[in-house]
Amino acid sequence: MRSLASIVLAFESIVLALVTPVMISVADIRPAVAVPVCLGLAALAIVSAGLLRFQAGYVLGSVVQVGAVGLGFVVSVMFVLGVFFAAFWVAAIVLGRRIEEAKKAHQAQTG
Fold this sequence. Notes:
Elements: H1 2-25, H2 31-50, H3 55-70, H4 77-110
Helix pairs in contact: 1-2, 1-4, 2-3, 3-4
C-alpha cells in the first residue's frame, strides 16, 4: 500500500509544482501567493510520501488531495486533475490493502 501511495504523491507533487506558473500567467495570481501555495502543497506531498510508514502520512496525503481539488477554484483544470489524483489516492489505499491481505494469506498458506 505504501509504495502505491508514494507513487501517487510523487507524481502529484510534480503536477502541483507545475501549476505554479499556470496560476501566475493564466489565472493572474500574484507570485507571492501562487508560489507558497503550489510549492507548499508539492512539498507537503513529498513529506507525506516520506511519512507513509505512519498514519500521519496518510492523513497529510489526504490533506494534499483536498488542497489539489481546492486549487480548482483558482485554476479550473485543477478540479479535473485534483479529482483524478484523489481517485488514484483512494485506489492506491484500497488496492494496497488488498495486496497486503493477499500477501498475508499466501504467507499463511506456505508458512
